[in-house]
């Protein structure tokens, strides 16, 4: 009995595209908060930027059936990829919190569309006799991205990006704040934050 071919051109392209989409998402998880903090964003604004991506990705999925009926799976996938590409490229060009929030909404729309229709299309191209194996390989890309992309993003930020000095200063400041003994005029224990020391991000491990 001849085994049906799994690794077709369409299957490889869809698996690679899905893995790269998740890699882009996970690279931004640790790096985008540092960037928006450097723009002067408050803690609540950083939380909004982090959370609104998920809300927009969920929201756009409510209209996937309408999109399939009107445009088809491939067109919806291409639209999602285009939205994701434009939003990801826009992060480097935007320098205001409001603009980054808008980019996160667009990115969430693109991510929701792309991942939904990539999964729908890959189910169509996998041979029925190897569907379980194919779906497993397809999902492996997102798992690898989850494991490697956050650390890779921090490497890019600290060693290559022009925002590297911001990241290194933040780490030094967090270390020095954790090692500095409380002074006689410290407000520690009173519940009041120190002036100019409101932490926007969790302290990195020493």
Unreliable runs, pLDDT <50, ≥5 residues?
Answer: 163-171, 185-202
Task: Tell me the distance between the termini.
Answer: 58 Å
Number of strands: 0
Structural class given helices, strands, pairing? mainly alpha
- What is the radius of gyration? 21 Å
- Quick one: overall form? globular
Mean pLDDT: 81
Instruction: Indicate the percent of residues in helices.
Output: over 70%
Beta-strand level of the residues, as a percent range? under 5%
Count the helices. How many?
A: 7
Order of helices and strands: HHHHHHH
Major sheet characteristics: none
Question: How is this structure best described in words?
Answer:
Helix content is 73%, strand content 0%. With 206 residues, the chain is mainly α. α1 (9-38) runs antiparallel to α2, α1 packs antiparallel against α5 and α1 (9-38) packs parallel to α6 (131-159). The chain is globular. The N and C termini lie far apart (58 Å).
In short:
This protein has 206 residues and is an all-alpha fold.
Pick out its properties.
single chain; mainly alpha; 206 residues; 7 helices
Detail the topology: elements first, then pairings:
Layout: H1 9-38, H2 43-61, H3 64-71, H4 73-91, H5 97-125, H6 131-159, H7 164-179
Helix pairs in contact: 1-2, 1-5, 1-6, 2-5, 3-4, 4-5, 6-7
